[in-house]
Structures are given as C-alpha cells and as structure tokens.
Write a structure and sequence with these properties.
Blueprint (H helix, E strand, L loop, with lengths): L18 H10 L1 E6 L3 H16 L19 H7 L2 H11 L3 E11 L7 E4 L13 E6 L10 E3 L10 E3 L11 E3 L9 E2 L6 E6 L4 E3 L8 E10 L11 E6 L7 E2 L9 H18 L15
Parallel strand pairs: 12-13
Antiparallel strand pairs: 1-9, 2-11, 2-12, 3-10, 4-9, 4-11, 5-8, 5-10, 6-7
Length: 293
C-alpha cells in the first residue's frame, strides 16, 4: 500500500493540522505526506548537505556527528525550527516543544543497509512515550530505494526489542521488535523532496534496503514535549524550538557556522551527554512503558 493524500501547500501561512488530520494521526500513528518546502528549495538544502559531506573524511557525515546534526549546520538548525515542520508537530504535542535529536538516514544506491521493524521510544530514556518523529525527504523516497514503511495502529503498546546482530541495520542498537508484523497491511511512505511524514514514538516502522540506482536520504527530527524528563544518568541537552522551556534539559545553541570550530567544540560534550542518557537502555531485550489506555 502507498500513501497518496497530500497536505496543504508549504506557502500557506498557518500550517497547523486540521481536526481530521489529527484524528487520523491518533488512530493510525502516522501522517504523510506533508509539504515542508518546494523541490527547488529542497535542492538547495541537498546541495548544502553534499558540500558538507564533500568536506568530511570519506565523503560522509560520521555517526558521531549525526546524533544532533542541527547543532553543526545553521541551515539544519533553521529547518528543525521551520514553521512548516513545527506547526504540525505543535498540533500533536502542544505548545512547548524541544528537539531531542536529529540525524540523516542515508541509503546509497544498491546498499544493503536497512532499518528493522522497531519503535523509536525503546532506547531514548525519556519519562514517557510522548514524542513525534518528523522525517523530511532530501531526495525522492520510494519503494524502490527503501522508503520508510509503517505498521498502522501499532502505537498504543510497547514491545520488547532485541539486538539482531546484523551490522547492515541502521539503528544504533541494531534492534528489532520481537513481534510479528503484518507485512500485508504495512504502508510505504513515499515522499517527494521537500515533503515529510510524522509518526508516533511507539509506531512500529522500518525500511528495506535500497535496491535502486537512486540515493535515498532524509532528515529524521525527534520532537518531544518540554514537560518530559530524561531517565538516564546526567542531564542531557535539547533544543527549544517553540514555546516555554520547562527546565528539564540544558538548552542547546545555534551553530555559528557549518562545522565551525566553536560549533564543534560545543557539540562533542553535548553528544556525549546524549549517549550517556541513551546507551544504558541498550543491550538485551528492552521494553518501554506503554501509553495509558
């Protein structure tokens, strides 16, 4: 099955979701596609990403820098806070919103890398499974190149996950949900460049390998309501994107320049604090508390 309903033009002044869209999200656990930018503007974003990669060792962004990539590039900081992204998220999470993490999921042509069926909340170490992931397409995201797939309605319970031991899995814990997923009813989230999907932190989702000659690349942004806290050791950081800070995280700063010296100096301690909060949850079977019924 492939999603086909398209949301409003990204130039609309108010991009909050209407009541029907919110109801569909609450029922299914996801919403897509939603317009963020037109393809011309996204091509400019893609060119900036290509320039960043060209200047990095091996022509790629390292996993270390991909935890909170918006802290290393001003244009990504601005995209994380863009009204076309945050307005729909506000409709789902409320007015006080933090960015918990942001990174690229990048599959090169004919790559075996894939994402097993999983739930985002499993290893995040947050006080409640209340979060929204925005996945913004930098390239076309299609069935052929390994677009995201979702299992509708699986977001009301938390499931045990385990390490697959598969190094082609693109998740830090190589985790896979330990329940059978109904492949016949899975939905392929096909997106044009500049469109995004939104999904619940407990929605079971994944993606297949890229069997095409076309790159598939998207920015995954993790938004949480500001009232949440971290259950891990230490005090991690987050980016205030809208509304009021509730004081549970140290707030992050906009980068001065793309991979600039000051941004990099600030980034590494921030990334270490995030990893300290997340890593204790990895290893062995893991389950998070389900949402209240």
């Amino acid at each position: 099955m492939t999603v086909s309903t398209r949301q409003s033009d990204p130039r609309d002044r108010d991009r909050h979701l209407d009541a029907d869209s919110v109801e569909r999200y609450r029922r299914d656990g996801y919403l897509a596609p939603i317009a963020v930018t037109d393809e011309t503007e996204m091509a400019e974003h893609r060119a900036r990403l290509d320039a960043i990669e060209a200047g990095r060792p091996g022509g790629r962004i390292s996993p270390v820098h991909n935890v909170k990539i918006h802290l290393l590039a001003p244009y990504l900081w601005d995209l994380v806070r863009h009204p076309a992204v945050v307005d729909p998220v506000e409709s789902l999470l409320g007015p006080d919103i933090l960015c918990w993490a942001a990174g690229f999921f990048d599959k090169r042509p004919d790559s075996p890398q894939h994402v097993p069926w999983h739930q985002d909340a499993t290893y995040w170490g947050l006080s409640a499974p209340e979060a929204v992931t925005a996945w913004i397409a930098f390239t076309p995201s299609t069935r052929a190149n390994g677009c995201m797939r979702v299992s509708p309605g699986t977001h009301n319970a938390a499931f045990v996950h385990a390490d697959t031991g598969d190094n082609t899995a693109m998740l830090p814990g190589r985790e896979k949900v330990q329940v059978e997923v109904d492949e016949a009813h899975a939905v392929d989230i096909e997106l044009r460049p500049g469109e995004m999907s939104l999904h619940d932190v407990l929605l079971v989702h994944g993606s297949r390998a890229n069997s095409s000659a076309q790159r598939r690349c998207g920015l995954s942004i993790r938004y949480i309501p500001a009232h949440l806290t971290s259950t891990g050791p230490g005090r991690p950081t987050a980016t205030l994107v809208r509304g009021r800070d509730h004081g549970h995280f140290d707030l992050e700063e906009r980068p001065d320049a793309t991979f600039g010296p000051q941004a990099i100096q600030r980034y590494h301690p921030v990334a270490r604090r995030w990893m300290r909060a997340v890593m204790p949850n990895m290893g062995g079977g893991k389950r998070v508390e389900a949402k209240p019924s």
